[in-house]
Amino acid sequence: MSTAEKFVRNLLSNWTGMILGLMISFFLSPYVVRKLGNTYYGVWNIIMDMTGYLGLLEMGVRQSIIRYVAKYNAVNEMDSLNRIVSSAFSIYGFTSVACAVISIGLAALFPYVVDVSADTVPIARWVIVITGFSVAQGLIFSVYYGVILGIQRYDVVVKVNMLVSIIKAGLTVALLGNGYGLISLSMMHLVMGFASSMYGRHYCNKEIPGLNIRFGKYASEWYGRIFNYSLKTFMMFIGQKIVYYSDSIVIGILLGPVHVTYFVIGASLTEYMRRIVNQMTQMFTPLTSELQALREEQKIRDVLIQGTKLSLIIALPISIVFLTMGKRFISLWMGKEYGPLSGEVLIVLTIAHLFSIAQYTTQDILQGLNKHQICAVCRCAEAVANLILSIVLIRYWGIVGVAVGTAVPHLATALFAYPYFISREVKVDFKQYVFRSYMAPIISSVPYLICCILIENRFPAGNLAGFFARVLALMPLYLVPVWYFSIRKQERIVYISALYKLVPALNRKPG
User: Most-buried pick from 34, 54, 324, 349 (CB within 10 A)?
Assistant: First the structure.
């Protein structure tokens, strides 16, 4: 299978799963908020963000697995592949135990950090412990999904995630509808996470000939190779966690759980946009490692330009809708009381994420090249600035101040640091990189932007059906210029050819 065919196959799979996830969140979020209430929904999000930091115990090892599996699989070195994966498995054995122990400590400290009522404390503590154990089991079994991603079978991961998401959504509705609360939800997440882990193990053992993962085998001689790569990834993930998941904690501590709900509603929309693009760019890490092993330097430069451009093409129409119609959408989706404040958060974060999303390709390519110490330094510097600004600005502008504190350093790294470093590392002309990646998509989006502003001001939607009808009716004004102006003829031929090969139904002749 060609590189283009692999890319299109994985992209279609990832986006199918992403669309399903968006649909589930779209319908489920208002239901969960109504059933739990602002306070418990805020507590749930604070706990999810707190326990999310337990994922740092993964220490970047999974990214090491993905990179080295892609590298050794490309040159058919199964012995080296088994050594690196077995070593990673032994590391995860220790970190998963540490994760479970730390979660117990977090549960004990929770009421001293977040101001909640006395009757909420035991519930919150149980949820933290259960979620911590869920993260722990996910750590040790993530070895198998690292292998699956390393051989670039993103479609397999997507299918599992889709099935799990559907079941979890159904169980969430059933549990909350029958009066159950946060503890039952966290138990359900634990069970479903374990089931997903077991399938990953089953797939690897069945479908990958020669794979032999053994606890402790080869560990001592391969730790250095893993940690040489994963330490940089770990530092990058620390910064990333603070950048993306500290806001709710800051708000919860300084303002209270109720305010978290208003922030999360706006921030969640930009998170969905971020995930849509990340579903594409995450594939560039194993792809770049494979191309590096084969010494295909020009193809790496092509991936950089094409990936950056495609990221912008995907993010621009979503960002335009958020900026011009975001407040109205939130009012129609979640309720009028959320529209004004959550909408302001959405606008601020959208501006920041639009430009940072364009650099997701840069970050994943640098990981594939084992040059991601650049990402680690940028992320950690951004995280420190984020925390300081958020804590200062929340006193003046409330949750909007937290959004601004997140946006300013985010824009600085996206607009200045990453473009400079990536053009140097892959030896691409900076002006050519900026022009081919940025200018065409931005210019192509102008007609769509103008029409969205006019529609919102002259013909505002009165319900969600009307809102989506307006957005879809305007999409040709974006898609046509992008297809003919932003995507070159040769690129269109490659994408269409790969699509026809992967979707047999497109090749069938009528009659």
Answer: 349
What is the C-alpha separation between 302 and 305, in angstroms, rounded? Answer: 5
Alpha helices in 114-181 (DSSP H): 121-150, 154-177
Which pairs count as long-range contacts for 91-96, CB under 8 Å and 24+ apart, including other chains?
A: 91/59, 91/61, 91/219, 91/223, 91/226, 92/58, 92/61, 92/139, 92/140, 92/142, 92/143, 93/140, 93/215, 95/57, 95/58, 95/59, 95/139, 95/140, 96/57, 96/136, 96/137, 96/139, 96/140
**What's the pTM?**
0.74
Smallest CA-to-CA distance from 283 within 160, 164, 421, 151 is with: 151
Burial 158-167 (b: 16+ CB within 10 A, else e): bebbbbbbee
Q: How far apart are CA 330 and CA 129, in angstroms?
A: 33
DSSP track, 60-105: THHHHHHHHHHHHHHTT-HHHHHHHHHHHHHHHHHHHHHHHHHHHH
Q: Which residues of 128-152 are buried (b: 16+ CB within 10 A; e: fewer)?
A: bbbbbbbbbbbbbbbbbbbbbbbbb
In angstroms, the CA 236 to CA 229 distance is 11
Residue 496 tokens, joined: 């269409």
Smallest CA-to-CA distance from 113 within 128, 99, 98 is with: 128
Helix ranges restricted to H, 208-296: 219-245, 247-254, 257-281, 284-293
Distance of CA 190 to the CA centre of its chain: 20
The string of pLDDT tens digits covering residues 486-495 is 888 887 887 7
Q: State the DSSP code for 510.
A: P
Sequence ranges of the domains in the chain: 1-227
> What are 25-83's pLDDT values in tens digits?
888 888 888 888 888 888 888 888 788 778 777 777 887 888 888 878 777 788 788 88
Q: Give 461's DSSP letter.
A: -
Provide the angle, in degrees to the nearest 10, between the axes of the packed helices 3-52 and 121-150: 160
pLDDT for 388 equals 95
